[in-house]
């Protein structure tokens, strides 16, 4: 492994079950890439720097599984995609929420036509603050924004469940509670026009109470021409379908949740397609970077 930045404290990583005395630690990730020549690289840099690290890995012929967002700027994202195509490798992102049984069940209901055409979508991302966060969340050039870091999950599971794409975004955000972290918006809202003419809203916050039973509170409601499917994920999974033909009922959830790292490795071995199609994490990142621009500029941006 390589430190993501100089003097990075390795104690949290050393507590991982994956750690052993045989792990060689490098101070420069480029030196590690040159000496080790790994087949797969996991990129977990300060979030806005993920793209630059991934570009160096891809240029050396490595497959990449990156923390989201894939890049902190549209220029880095464009370069990463070009380098990926040139090297012929795979780049995926840590976007596991579409693997959650509730989202899998909701997608099946939509694909099966249970709610007709998706027309109005609302989603929520709410996180606990978890006490004091590290310096990354105070630095705009390192954090990169709450929309690319947090909202990207909702962007991905909306696309996954509905099969729709985003066409236009208006966004607003603010730092209202954790003012000693000026780079970290702790509340905000996004309004999208979808490619079928419908609308989607996403709200996000770092305001989930500390004594709540789970770190996150994720919600999704998809209203269609023939019914509605709703999801809430906290410490439990809940998914309900209501249609014009049937009484509201909970959906049967798949029992197994694949491991995203194992899924990626197996896909590289040709055992099955990766759960994230090749361009999906790039699309998710682009939508969020442009939505961040919309929030910072107080405007509407075409997607």
What fraction of residues sit in β-strands? 15-25%
CATH superfamily of the largest domain: Dihydrodipicolinate Reductase, domain 2
Contiguous runs where pLDDT drops below 50 for at least 5 residues: none
Distance between the termini: 37 Å
Count of distinct structural domains? 2
Side-by-side strand order of the widest sheet: 11-10-9-8-4-7-6-5-12
User: How helix-rich are the residues, as a percent range?
Assistant: 25-40%
- Radius of gyration, CA atoms, in whole angstroms: 20 Å
Secondary-structure element pattern, one letter each: HHEHEHEHEHHEEEEEEEHHE
- Number of helix segments? 9
Class from helix and strand fractions: alpha+beta
Supply the CATH class of the largest domain: Alpha Beta
What summary fits the major beta sheet?
9 strands, mixed
Number of strand segments: 12
Task: Determine the CATH topology of the largest domain.
Answer: Dihydrodipicolinate Reductase, domain 2
Mean pLDDT: 96
> Any idea what the shape is?
globular
Looking at how many chains there are and whether they match, the oligomeric state comes to single chain
The CATH architecture of the largest domain can be given as 2-Layer Sandwich
């Amino acid at each position: 492994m390589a430190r993501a930045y100089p003097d990075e404290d390795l104690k949290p990583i050393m507590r991982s079950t994956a750690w052993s005395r045989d792990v060689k630690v490098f101070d420069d990730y480029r030196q590690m890439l040159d000496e080790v020549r790994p087949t797969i690289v996991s990129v977990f840099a300060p979030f806005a720097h993920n793209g630059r690290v991934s570009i160096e890995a891809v240029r050396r012929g490595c497959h990449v599984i990156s923390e989201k967002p894939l890049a902190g700027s549209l220029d880095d994202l464009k370069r990463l995609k070009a380098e990926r195509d040139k090297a012929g490798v795979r780049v995926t992102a840590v976007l596991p929420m579409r693997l959650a049984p509730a989202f899998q069940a909701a997608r099946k209901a939509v694909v099966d036509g249970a709610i007709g055409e998706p027309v109005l979508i609302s989603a929520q991302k709410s996180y606990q603050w978890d006490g004091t966060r590290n310096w990354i969340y105070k630095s705009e050039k390192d954090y990169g924004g709450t929309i690319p870091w947090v909202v990207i999950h909702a962007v991905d599971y909306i696309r996954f469940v509905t099969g729709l794409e985003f066409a236009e975004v208006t966004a607003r955000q603010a730092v209202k509670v954790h003012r000693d972290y000026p780079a970290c918006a702790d509340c905000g809202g996004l309004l999208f026009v979808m490619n079928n003419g419908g609308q989607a809203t996403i709200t996000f916050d770092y305001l989930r109470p500390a004594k709540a039973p789970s770190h996150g509170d994720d919600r999704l409601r998809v209203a269609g021409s023939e019914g509605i499917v709703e999801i809430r994920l906290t410490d439990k999974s809940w998914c309900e379908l209501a249609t014009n033909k049937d009484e509201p009922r909970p959906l049967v959830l798949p029992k197994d949740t694949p491991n995203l790292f194992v899924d990626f490795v197996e896909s590289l071995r040709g055992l099955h397609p990766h759960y994230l199609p090749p361009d999906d994490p790039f699309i998710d990142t682009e939508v969020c970077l442009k939505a961040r621009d919309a929030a910072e500029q107080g405007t509407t941006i075409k997607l």
